Each structure stands twice: as C-alpha cells, then as structure tokens.
Amino acid sequence: MSRSESKDYFTEWHDHLPEINSSDRANLDILWRRYIYHRSGGHLLESTVMLLLVSPLLTIAGLYDPPCRIKAEESIAINVSDSEETLQGRIDVLVLRDRLWIIVLESKKTMLSVWSALPQTLAYLMASPNSDGTHPAGNRPTFAMLTNGDDIVFVKLEGKQYAMSQVLAPLVNQGELEVAWQVLRKIAEIEV
User: Fold this and answer.
1) Looking at the chain, which runs of residues are DSSP E strands?
2) Domain residue spans of the chain
3) What's the pTM value of the predicted model, to 2 decimals?
C-alpha cells in the first residue's frame, strides 16, 4: 500500500463540495455551539464525542437515511507509546453502506491524535467489501472519517493507494465543521 501525493487523487474532500442550505447551516451552528460548550469543560470521552458531535453531524448530513445503512463494528484497542507514557485508546467504528467508515477515537487520560488510528483504519478499508474487484475501473474507493472530537481527517483508499485530507479542526473554527459536513455529503452522493 502506498500514499498518493497527487492533488488529483483525493479531490472529494475539497472540489465541488455541496452547498449548505440555511436549515443545515442553522443546525450546524447549534451543533458547534453545543460542542464548544461541553468541550470547554475539558477532554471528552468517545461516547460523549459520538453523542455531541459525530451522531448529530451524520444526522444533519442525512447519513442515517436511505440508502445509507449503519453497521457497528467491534472496538479495537490500541496502544500508543511516547517517551513518557503509554496511552490506551479504542477505535470505535460505524460503517455506512460499506463505503464510509466513521472512526471515533477515545483516550482515558490524554486525547489521542487522529493519526494514531490511521494504520488500523487502512486495515479496515483494505478488508472492505469494495475491494472485490467488481467495479469497472477496478476497486471502488472507500472512505473513512477519523475524529477525536477536536480534529477530523478524511481518508480515501482505492486499490492499494490512499490519501488523506488536511486536518479539519471544528474546535477552532465553525467553518471547519461546515467543511466536514460538505465532505460527508459529497461522499454520500458518490454512486456505489
């Protein structure tokens, strides 16, 4: 597997993103304010990030509605060692239509970087049913959204090549949450 550095490989996260209507923008504003309020009290655990950020974002993006189907996967434990401590965390996965994997990280003591989940995420994507070779152009692309609540990164895997979006930081800027919504909508609109 190799990482594509081509700007033309993963355009779904930045080119021709869907417009946000006034209703969705109002809902995203409420979502952002609610998240900021609760996040200002300190780090949030995975279940709280899922409740306050991920699930509402998927709802506003219409990803709980047909033709999307949700399939929960088992949590995977990960260990990330740094110079002073080992961080314990879990990757919880929600699969939508076998095309989009939502990966929410949890850490008990310190927030894990979204990058710590990249190797496991690529393993999930490689095992996806989309890698069966039935797509006319070869393997169909599969996508993931990784988040620890503060940062969101999108990943695209097609065949044995992958690429990542820039880090979106909804904690810093509400516009970053709007871009995450747009990327989710764009991926959801890609034909299976």
Assistant:
1) 2-3, 70-72, 76-81, 86-96, 100-107, 142-147, 152-158, 161-164
2) 2-189
3) 0.84
- Which residues face 45 on adjacent strands? none
123 touches 142 (CB < 8 A): no
- Bigger pLDDT: 112 or 121? 121
Separation between Cα atoms, residue 108 and residue 46, nearest integer Å: 9
Residues 6+ positions from 179 with CB-CB distance below 8 Å: 17, 168
d(CA 170, CA 150): 6
How many CB atoms neighbour CB 36 within 10 A?
Answer: 15
What residues does 93 pair with on adjacent strands?
A: 103
Q: CA-CA distance, 15 to 11, in Å (whole number)?
A: 5
